[in-house]
Specification:
2 strands; binds fe (ii) ion; single chain; globular; Ferritin; mainly alpha; Ferritin-like domain-containing protein; DUF455
Length: about 270
């Protein structure tokens, strides 16, 4: 294993097999935690991440308009939903390692990388949980087509750390908080306890990822003497394509340090 976090991040990003990617991601986290416990934390270092992460040959990536829709109430519909979530989780693994390597030239407190290592480890667990659920239903990740263009937010904000924080944790991951309770209900109705339990883990842990985004976004606003709400609105309008979609989970968003005056104006003005 490389000796710096940024190089480890690039190793995860460059791994194409999905289960191999998540197991390397979890192994790096374990090594990082062991180095912290030993009083000699692995340094962040510097490394240039690939523009796009390596991914498996399957799933086939399609324009969202071309991904076939399946009835949500049917077993096929639930497999399609789990497959879509697995795809999001795998993308999230890469996003969290990417932020560590991509912005390794920006001096940040040690807690910044440590937060994203923890988030990346949790995304790796989430992906594995979704794959386990798919396999229990006789399917697997790669069996269905998945959305192309998930990496777009990363490409758009590759030069802008505040833009990355605004769009990825504070918009995309916050959206996960809005929609996950409805997904849990789908699997509760179908009496699929394995999927309910997995989604409950995801729901509980995603709050912290949004909170890390908000924390470091506010930190950078303080560093540059900027008004957080105004800058957030500017950056989301610059990098996120389209309005934010209500209904919002105001309670969980507040828990994650995202007040309503950050997101509501972007829902109505588009
Ligand atoms: Fe996740
Ligand atoms: Fe997340």
């Amino acid at each position: 294993m490389p000796s710096t976090l940024a190089e480890c991040a690039v190793a995860v990003l460059s791994t194409s097999d999905a289960r191999a990617k998540t197991s390397l991601s979890r192994a790096v986290t374990a090594a990082f935690r062991a180095s912290q416990a030993a009083g000699a934390p692995m340094p962040v270092g510097h490394a240039a991440p690939p523009m796009r992460p390596a991914r498996p040959a399957r799933p086939e990536l399609l324009d969202p308009r071309d991904v076939p829709r399946r009835k949500p109430g049917s077993p096929e519909g639930r497999i399609a939903l789990l497959h879509a979530i697995a795809h999001i989780e795998l993308n999230a693994v890469d996003l969290h390692w990417d932020i560590i390597a991509r912005f390794s030239d920006t001096p940040m407190p040690a807690g910044f990388a440590a937060d994203w290592v923890k988030a990346a480890d949790e995304e790796s667990k989430h992906f594995n949980l979704m794959c386990d659920c798919l396999e229990a239903m006789g399917s697997h990740y790669g069996a269905l087509p998945a959305h192309a263009g998930m990496w777009r937010a990363a490409e758009d904000t590759a030069e802008d750390l505040m833009g990355r924080l605004a769009v990825v944790p504070m918009v995309l991951e916050a959206r996960g908080l809005d929609v996950t309770p409805g997904m849990i209900e789908v699997f509760r109705k179908a009496k699929d306890q394995r999927a309910v339990d997995a989604l409950e883990v995801i729901y509980a842990e995603e709050v912290a990822h949004v909170a890390y985004g908000s924390k470091w976004f506010h930190f950078l606003c303080g560093r540059h003497d900027l008004d957080p709400k105004d800058v957030f609105h500017d950056l989301v309008q610059r990098y996120f394509h389209g309005p934010l979609k209500p209904p919002f989970n105001d309670e969980k968003r507040a828990e994650a340090g995202l007040p309503p005056d950050f997101y509501w104006p972007l829902a109505v003005s588009g």
